[in-house]
Design brief:
401 residues; alpha+beta
Length: 401
């Protein structure tokens, strides 16, 4: 006998936003999964992936913006393909959504799968209500923080740091006042396990703390140089910034943050000669000019990401790309003096601020997309702070030379 999971929600959002939530890959990522690709037409593909390792694939059977969508579903390790039907009707200032996931068996072989599918859709739909009504992704709101910023790690970096493994997550810095700092972790420590789970990439880290909340304590294994060490780390509560109401307001906040960063950079770099700005502390370490080149490239990458989010067409990649030294060199050659690099960085930041302010006010109707964009932009200053600290360290080493 077939079994069907039936769930319903009432959400204060127009039908067009509900439709978008089940047909756009970017929006799927904002409330349900961690990666998606979707072509919303009959026979079009649908693939959803979670950092837990679960994934499902299928195809759209029916796509109707007014009434609902239907698609096949074949999850990892599931015995056979099932079907999901989502229908909606407008009711005054809200939308009634009914989801039916059918085609499962009542046999014991399906018992665990039925429970997991019901639980997954239940939490997903609860998050959909939050995203559509407030913009807030409950997965992010409730996810605890370990309190560090990750940097590149590869066999070459491992050799430089005398780390005897090539897989792990290298800490670029720890965040003041959070769990990692309290546990004694430092920049260039390489985490190899968290909560007894091996770490190979960012996804494995998310999987390791899945289900944990702020205040929980997890065991951590890491290398500092060639020595493997263990520590207990208390998970911190995630600070959530106030999200400005409009893109113009958001641009003003970002501009103020940029002005503070520029003032700090101007103070650090005042009077530095060109040879000092070109000084490399080590063969595989950046000079001040190269750090500024990286910041210019990061700003351009940020602009591309803004464009993708407001276009609802984000590019995706497996993991993080490493910084290309060839690109760094090209930027330094294009802006060879310290003053030229500084001016280009300032120009790029001005362009970012103008771009944010020019985002159509109507984009805020996509509450989940706007909230996520604003949240990420408000965190971006951490990246600059990290590299300002790096510039100060390089400058100190140059003075010793």
């Amino acid at each position: 006998m077939p079994a069907t999971v039936i769930l319903s929600i009432q959400v204060k959002a127009p039908i067009i936003e509900v439709y978008r939530s089940f047909t756009n890959a970017t929006v799927f990522n904002e409330w349900l999964c961690d990666f998606a690709t979707a072509i919303p037409r009959q026979g079009g593909r649908l693939y959803l992936y979670w950092n837990s390792g679960y994934f499902t694939s299928g195809e759209y059977i029916r796509v109707d913006p007014r009434e609902g969508v239907e698609f096949t579903w074949h999850g990892r390790d599931e015995p056979r393909t099932t079907r999901v039907k989502v229908s909606w009707t407008e009711q005054d200032d809200s939308t009634l959504l009914i989801l039916e996931h059918s085609g499962m068996s009542m046999s014991s072989a399906w018992s665990k799968t039925r429970k997991e599918i019901r639980a997954g859709w239940k939490s997903g739909l609860e998050n959909l209500v939050s995203v559509l009504e407030t913009g807030q992704d409950l997965r992010l709101i409730n996810r605890p923080m370990l309190g560090f910023i990750l940097g590149d790690f590869n066999p070459k970096i491992a050799q430089t740091l005398h780390i005897p493994v090539s897989e792990g997550l290298r800490l670029d810095r720890v965040v003041e006042g959070m769990g990692a700092q309290a546990a004694g972790l430092q920049a260039n420590d390489v985490l190899v396990t968290v909560n007894h789970q091996p770490l190979t990439d960012y996804g494995s880290l998310i999987k390791a703390i899945h289900g944990k909340i702020a205040g929980d304590i997890v065991p951590v294994e890491y290398y500092r140089g060639g020595v493997k060490q263990k520590v207990s780390l208390k998970l911190s509560r995630r600070p959530i910034p106030d999200i400005p109401a409009t893109p113009v307001d958001l641009a003003a906040v970002i501009e103020r943050g940029y002005q503070e960063i520029e003032t700090e950079l101007d103070s650090i770099l005042a009077g530095i000669p060109e040879d000092t700005a070109s000084f490399k502390p080590g063969k595989d370490e950046w000079s001040i000019k190269e750090i500024l080149a990286h910041l210019i490239q990061s700003e351009r990458g940020l602009q591309n990401n803004i464009n993708e989010i407001i276009s609802s067409q984000e590019r995706v990649a497996d993991g993080y790309s490493e910084n290309s030294q060839a690109w760094i060199n090209a930027t330094v050659q294009t802006y060879p003096s310290l003053s030229a690099l500084r001016e280009e960085l300032k120009r790029s930041k001005r362009e970012t601020v103008f771009f944010i302010a020019a985002i159509p006010a109507s984009f805020t109707l996509h509450k989940g997309s706007y909230w996520r964009l604003a949240f990420n932009l408000l965190q971006f200053s951490l990246h600059f702070r990290e590299h300002i600290q790096q510039i100060s360290q390089v400058l100190d080493q140059a003075k010793v030379k």
